[in-house]
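Reviewers of the previous submission asked for a worked example of the structure-prediction workflow described in the proposal, so we include one complete record here. The input consisted solely of the amino acid sequence. No template or homolog information was supplied to the procedure at any stage.
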Amino acid sequence: MELQYTPSQQAFRAEIRDWLAANKPSEPLITLECEEGFHQHVAWERKLARGNWGMVTWPEAYGGRGLDLVEWLIFEEEYWGSGAPLRANQNGIFLLGPTIMEYGTDDQKQRFLTPMAAGEKIWAQAWSEPGAGSDMAAIKATAVRDGDHYVLNGQKTWSSRASFADWGFGLFRTEEGSQRHKGLSFLLFDLESAGITRRPIRQLHGDPGFAELFFDDVRVPVENRLAGEGEGWSVAMATAGFERGLMLRSPGRFQATARRLIDLFRKHEASATPSAREAVSKAWMDTQAYAYNTYAVTAKIMAGGSIGAEASLNKIFWSELDRAMHRTAMQLLGAAGELRRFADGTANDWLEGYIFSLSGPIYAGSNEIQRNITAERLLGMPRVGKG
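From that input alone, the workflow returned the following structure tokens.
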């Protein structure tokens, strides 16, 4: 199968390729998970915005270019293929941004999308709680209405980017006594608000890419609520769809990893096992299959369709693919690859990627939950214990 692009799409590909070649950092940035590296990545976000590349599919009125999803896929292919840095604001532009497009008021779109695309406000995702991870319906943090404000109390954990971000979004229980999916509202809050305490969580590599958040009588304007009171579950499921579906993990990201894996295999081919050769070949085929499937889904969406439970199948595939590729890389590097974290840039990239890939089957909804959704909603299988 070979994808065919129009002359305008080819011209767009050349434009972004040339811009990245002239503007991307000449040296790798420090990891996004530490404070210094975070600010380096934010500076890159703002440089992207000055080139009008903040979020190309958004309307021009909100800092975008008004391009379609195929052009976004082309942008992502060139972006990741160039070796450009991770996006510091991925929780904002890929998850919250599309959610605001769908559920936000005109005022909310203008207030939040424009500075998001410009890299002026970096967003944290604050959903999980100590007793509500993959089961978000177990959320207990509360938001009690007090005039034109909500008063927030409770705790969030594993809040991505929350150690250094400016704003956060999350679900809070706004109906006293409500259970499970009912009585939840989707709120946006300034992380510098009085009453919010951040406690960084250090990961396996020692850097605080996540944080616990504690809310003690935090006042948030009602105008920062997306959709109606008590409608938060529907809003959050839309956000989760963006996270598991097209936006957060584009094919270009995995195609770039597969190309790097092939290069690594060539360097170690003399000592590589037959199983390693097979794994590298499978990685390339799987990334291409993922790309073709994504283009097919994109065509469906552009024709007026939507992506529903298929997003769960999508999430399982890319998370398992990412883990498999990095596991193969570490096997090619051998035991020494685990000892060169600070000594060799290539080994460091693969090791950091491998550590992160282990979380792939957990974040964005654990793969066990996604398999249940796939079985029930796509295959029509009954729930355990039901006929």
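The beta strands are 123-125, 142-146, 149-160, 167-173, 184-190, 196-201, 210-221, 225-226. We consider this example representative of the routine output the project will generate in years two and three.
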